[in-house]
Specification:
The complex is a heterodimer of chains A (110) and B (124). Chain A has 110 residues and is mainly beta. Chain A has no helices and 11 strands. In chain B, strands 2, 4, 5, 6, 9, 10 and 11 form a 7-stranded mixed β-sheet that branches. In chain B, strand 7 and strand 8 form a beta hairpin. The radius of gyration of chain B is 14 Å and the shape is globular. The chains are: A mainly beta (110), B mainly beta (124). The interface between A and B is medium-sized, with 27 and 28 residues.
Chain lengths: 110, 124
């Protein structure tokens, strides 16, 4: 069974930089997993921030960036703002048509 | 602007079948560049992918749910649907529908447009 791992929680100070990661049990995340990152605020629809590893969706501020760091996908927020406080979900496309989500990271800005 | 809207009963009895429909507006469900899918989120937990369908009939299911789930598409109504059989309390969740990029789409493999979600509670 494929398991995608994320930090359960993270905190960042306003104006600070934070990097959230997305790993794959027993393996490495690569660009061929087309990692994407989804932001979810309680009670609202999910919003896709990043797809294809590092491509920002339309209207997403450039303080959000995606990359591969070592054997994981990463989402970096540079200059965090209060309204960045959300849950962040990573999802990998496994090529066999199957998508697998991580457990999500709850980001606190304080 | 593309919009997706989930609809269906908010309460389903245990062991019965959960049925949901997603209505797509502002774009065609027959677009060759996209798949259409269902994702759910149990209360307080993460997102779980359920299934995807292409208008031409190509279908993928989450292996952990395969056998209980059926996804279908109605191009004449610009809708796609989900049926989940033999539900239990563990199937209580907010169910989202979303669009996923196909091979030639700008967002291959990724979901871009999402519905607002609908809460389905399984009661015993």
């Amino acid at each position: 069974q494929t398991v995608v791992t994320q930090e359960p929680s993270f905190s960042v100070s306003p104006g600070g930089t934070v990097t959230l990661t997305c790993g794959l049990s027993g393996g490495s995340v690569t660009i061929n997993n087309y990692p994407s990152w989804i932001q979810q605020t309680p009670g609202q629809a999910p919003r896709t921030l990043i797809h294809n590893t590092n491509t920002r969706s339309f209207g997403v501020p450039d303080r959000f960036s995606g990359s591969i760091l070592g054997n994981k996908a990463a989402l970096t927020i540079t200059g965090a703002q209060a309204d960045d406080e959300s849950d962040y979900h990573c999802v990998l496309f496994m090529g066999s048509g199957i998508s697998v989500f991580g457990g999500g990271t709850k980001l606190t800005v304080l | 602007q593309l919009q997706l809207q989930e609809s269906g009963p908010g309460l389903v009895q245990s062991s019965e079948t959960l049925s949901l429909t997603c209505t797509v507006s502002g774009g065609s469900i027959s677009n060759v560049n996209y798949y259409w899918g269902w994702i759910r989120q149990p209360p307080g937990k993460g997102l779980e992918w359920i299934a995807n369908i292409f208008y031409g009939g190509d279908i993928y299911y989450n292996p952990s749910l395969k056998g209980r789930v059926t996804i279908s598409i109605d191009t004449s109504m610009n809708q796609f649907s989900l049926k989940l059989r033999s539900v239990t309390a563990a199937d209580t969740a907010v169910y989202f529908c979303a669009r996923r990029g196909a091979r030639d789409a700008y967002n291959y493999g990724a979901f871009d447009f999402w519905g607002q979600g609908t809460l389905v509670t399984v009661s015993s």
